[in-house]
Structures are given as C-alpha cells and as structure tokens.
Amino acid sequence: MFKGRFVLITGFAGAGKSSALHSFEDLGYFCMDNLPPALIPKFAELCLQSAGKISRVALVCDIRGGELFHGLFEALARLEDLGFNYEILFLEASEEVLVRRFKETRRRHPLAERGTIVEVIQEERKLLEDIRGKADMIIDTTDLATADLRERINRLYAPQEWEKNILLTVLSFGYKYGLPLDADLVFDVRFLPNPYYVDSLRPLTGNDEVVREYVFKWTVTHRFYQKLVDLLEFLIPCYIKEGKPQLVIAIGCTGGKHRSVVLSNALLGLLQEKGYNARVEHRDLKKQ
Prior knowledge:
With 288 residues, the protein is α/β, with parallel strands linked by helices. It contains ten helices and nine strands. The radius of gyration is 25 Å and the shape is elongated.
C-alpha cells in the first residue's frame, strides 16, 4: 500500500498545468511532465518498491500524448488493481480565457492541426469530459493568477507545511565588494559602531563571540534588530502567500566581516526558532 500522495494532474491545454507542476515541485513532490499513461502503473510500482523514498508524486498526463492518452483509464484501473491510492487534479478555464492565453503566448494547441483554436478547445473539452468526471479536485483558473493557483495548490496538497516551505537565505556581504545580485531584500548596517576600529577585534569576525557582544552592546543595534525582525515577520508571510519559493535577505556592512555577519547569524537563529527552512551564507567573510 502506497502511504504517500500520488497526484495525477490533467485538464485543458492552457489551463495552468505547467504552473501547477512547478508548485508541486516547490513542495518537494517528485514531478514528471507528459508521462504516457502506459507508464503510470510501472512508475507506481517503482514508488512502492522505493521503501518510502518516493512518497509524494505529481504527474502531468494530457492530450499531448495523442492516441496514447486514450489508455489513461486502463492505466488507472491497473493502479486500482495494485491497491494504489491516487488523486486526480483537473485544471480548466473558460473558452474565452483559453483562447486569449494561446494568442498571448503564441503557443500551438496540441490539437491545432484539427481546426481553429476555438474548434480544438471545444473538441478537447469533449475528449476530457470523462476524466473530468472522475477528478477528485477541479480548479477553474479563469480568474486565477499564477500566484493564486500556487497558493491554492499549497493549501490543498501540503496544508501543514506550506507556510514554512519557503527557503530563506540570510546573506552577509561587504559593500566594498558590490551588492549581491540575487538579493531580494537588502539592509545596510554600516551605521552601526564598527568593530574594525577596535584593534583587538579587527582580525576577528562576526562569528567570534567577543565581536557579537561588541555589536550588540549598543542600543542602536538592538533597536535596528527589533525593527528588522518586525518587518520580516510582516513580509515573509506575504511572500509565502504570493507563492515565492525562496527569499534572499542580504545584510551588508563595509567589509562583510563583522557587523553584517553578527546580524545575519542572529537573524538565522530567530528564523530557525520560528520553524522556517533557513540558512546563512557569509559571502565576503574570507576576503582580505
């Protein structure tokens, strides 16, 4: 018996199946796109044999498979014979929206050779009628932005963990070496008292306890740190709701060895205490 989640994603071309698959991937699902139905039972057997290593799976199967798609019900029957639990997620959208999406992206519909875009969308609707009736979950993406679809999937398929799933990277850096290109948020701490001008602290780094004590002995440091924490406690849930899979929080001082390192380490500890998947990187710590 498969104890994880095995989700088959299908639906109309242009309804957002690729975006949905990316959302599942961000949630840690093993994902495959455009898998022929005949291979679904074989892949299910592989999951059963993995001893729990493959516990969450999301597969996209749709009419891009051509004639092979007609074997989907046979494949699902085989899963049931194996005692394999699966879920079907069906994505759809209004005809008007689907036409507009294909015109905007200039992509070809998988059935394009059979007629006009409106005709093939109507034909696809008939072809998918039976599988739609078997779906466990139907999401209409007509009025959904990509971020809204991602949030819907997060809540449906990882309700206990999606709020902590975002990867947070706290990055210390030195302004003398330039801004980090991948930073989403940048905070400048060059206004804080600088340990560099204390002879005994200059050769040390923000990883040393005496440097940390020096940086945090000032009232201005505590005030700034509290305001930084308050801001991030507001922002991070907003980014999660928007569907952002990762966030880089950069903290910079002059050389990237003292103040930025101390603040980054402190922030990392706080984020981990709150249950976030957080890591720290000191970009310029070893530079001269």
